[in-house]
Structure formats: structure tokens, C-alpha cells
Amino acid sequence: MARLISLQPKATEIVSTEDSLSQRTWHNRQRSENMSTATVTRSTRLIGDPEAIEATLRPSAGLEHQAIALETKHLSRSLVGRVLVNDVSVQVQPGEVLAVVGPSGAGKSSFLRLLNRLDEPTGGTVCLNGQDYHELTPRELRRRVGMVMQMAYLFAGTVAANVAFGPQQCGGRLRPEEIASLLDRVGLFGYQERDVSNLSGGEAQRVSLARTLANTPEALLLDEPTSALDDVSARGIEDLVLSIVRERRMTCVIVTHNTVQAHRIADRTMILEAGKLVTIGPTKEVLRDR
After folding, report:
1. Region of residue 160 (left: phi > 0; alpha: psi -120 to 50; beta: else)
2. Which CATH architecture does the domain made up of 18-63+94-105+136-286 adopt?
3. Cα(64)–Cα(54) distance, rounded to whole angstroms?
4. What residues have CB less than 8 Å from 99, skipping those under 6 apart?
5. Model confidence over 32-42: pLDDT tens digits?
6. CA dist., res. 227 & res. 288, Å (int)
7. Where are the domains of the chain?
8. Closest by alpha carbon to 164, among 150, 148, 175?
9. Per-residue pLDDT tens over the stretch 186-228
10. With left for phi above 0 and alpha for psi between -120 and 50, is residue 95 left, alpha or beta?
11. What's the DSSP call for residue 275?
């Protein structure tokens, strides 16, 4: 059995992650962050191309109504008498980025894990392109709905072996040039033979993303993918994800505690509190006062 390596980020890449704040403290912090974002945005609009800025803030701005790629129907999960996710129904279009925000313990990661059955719902279901995901095998579902975790868990060995892992599990095989192309796409040209134990945190997240993309997923789930990275590495991952979502018209759901990040990359944002959906809508409207 392959051994998993959890790659901790280098000291220069470590930033504080979400802690156990009360909902009041969380809301106060978000209002402060939002004021900073608004100041930066207003200043940028004076010196930049407004259309380019809008494209950065809204990667899929102006999405026309189209078929629903990912849909939750009354999705719920309870565990030992505790409700983690409570009757959540949302729809996400192809090419759309949906951010999931809320205070610590709101059920954000629990909700995300239900989307590809890493955890089993105790109520409701999820549909992928109109098909109930219980009709799919877990392996097929997780190939079509890829996930990148907060910390990159890579198998011991080379970068190339990690990227090739997913297709191998489905009976496929990536050619060396395909692996090279995937690594080039995530900014890791020539990394094929590098040992994963020698990667930085940012490099490890890029390998994790390449490994997920190797399965050609239809949807991409991101669980705090930049929370352990420095600002430069985090923005690099954000830009990379947005460009790939544009290219492939993938559906993307990202959990983040950082509303500034949600403003940068999400078309819409949903707020969870105590496992319940409080509101959902365009990011600039939902997070206006947060």
C-alpha cells in the first residue's frame, strides 16, 4: 500500500488558519477585511483597466443560464445526535465558482465532503449533471468530482508517480508527455522526477491539483487550499484555479474562511451557519457587509 506524506509548508509559507472564533468575532473580522478589500478595489479601478479588474474578480461573470452541473437536494448529515449539515439545497452551473463561507464549526468542510461522498449523507442527495450520485460507484464519482484538500497528501516517491496515480486506479495510463503537460500547466515544468519530500507547501499543492486534473474531473472541490500558504503562493494557486476553470468550463466549489479570497475568485457565495444555508447569491451582494 502506498504511503501518504503530509507535506507541511515551509516556515515562510505558514499563515494562521481558521481557529475557533465565535460567530460575532468572525463577522467583525469579515467586516474589517471587506473594508480593506473595498479600499484596494477602489484604488485599483482608478489606475487599471476596469474590464480586466472585473474579469479577475469574477472569472465567470455574466454566466448565462444553462444546465445545472452540480445540485444538492435537501442535503443533510447528522452524527451522534449532532447536526453537521442541515437541509441544504443549492445548484451550481458549469464554469461557475461557488464559495462556501461561515464561522468556525459552521459545517463548511462537512458540506464539501458530502459532495463526493467522502462522508455519506443521512438525508437528501447530490446530482451530477442530473444523475443521482448514489447511482455511481465511489471511484467513478471521485474521478468526476475531484477534490484538493487544505494540506497536500502525496504518496512517497516522485512527482510523476503521484500525477499518474488517479488514471492508474481506473485502468488507464498517462504517457510521459501527458504528465509533463499537466505539470507545465500547474507551473511545475520539469518536476517529473523530483521527490515529493523535497517540495515546498505551494509546490505540493500544485502537484495535488495536477493529480486531480489528471482524472479530467467535471467538478473541482477545494477545501481551504491556500490557508497554509503565504500570500504570494496563495494568489498563485488562485490564479491557476481560475484559469483552469475557464479553460475546462469546470464547476468549482471552494471552502474558505477568507472573504477577501471569496471576493477575488467566486461568482457566487453561500453562507453556512450551524449547518444551515443562511444565504446564497452574487459574492459582492452576499459579502457586502462582511
Report:
1. alpha
2. 3-Layer(aba) Sandwich (3.40)
3. 17
4. 253, 254, 255, 256, 261, 262, 265, 266, 268, 269, 270, 283
5. 444 444 333 33
6. 22
7. 18-63+94-105+136-286
8. 175
9. 999 999 999 999 999 999 999 999 999 999 999 999 999 988 8
10. left
11. T
